[in-house]
Amino acid sequence: VQLVESGGGLVQPGGSLRLSCAASGFTFSRYGMSWYRQAPGKERELVAVITRLGDSINYADSVKGRFTISRDNAKNTVYLQMNSLKPEDTAVYYCHRQLGGYWGQGTQVTVSS
Length: 113
Known about the structure:
The chain contains no helices and 11 strands. A hairpin with a 4-residue loop joins strand 7 (67-72) and strand 8 (77-82). Strands 2, 4, 5, 6, 9, 10 and 11 form a 7-stranded mixed β-sheet that branches. Strands 1-3-8-7 form a 4-stranded antiparallel β-sheet, with no helix packed on it. The protein is mainly beta.
């Protein structure tokens, strides 16, 4: 199992980023996927989760209305569109496969002027 995140970077407050997580080594469409984040000195927290077919989605209250999780099972990829970014969104963002506890290496998102 391999999960590879990309798309992080430095963005100004109010800006947008789109994270991608490319999955391999398993049948992607059989698993729900999640995005987590971990800020310095804080515990890792759930940001968004999507079921295997994308028919059920949930978000942390802190990102509702600003972030959108989606997936493309044909491309074995899950996305996180992040809009209206705030400094408090600064963290390392991780892709996670439900069942089995697999994680990507993380991608840094920094929101700063």
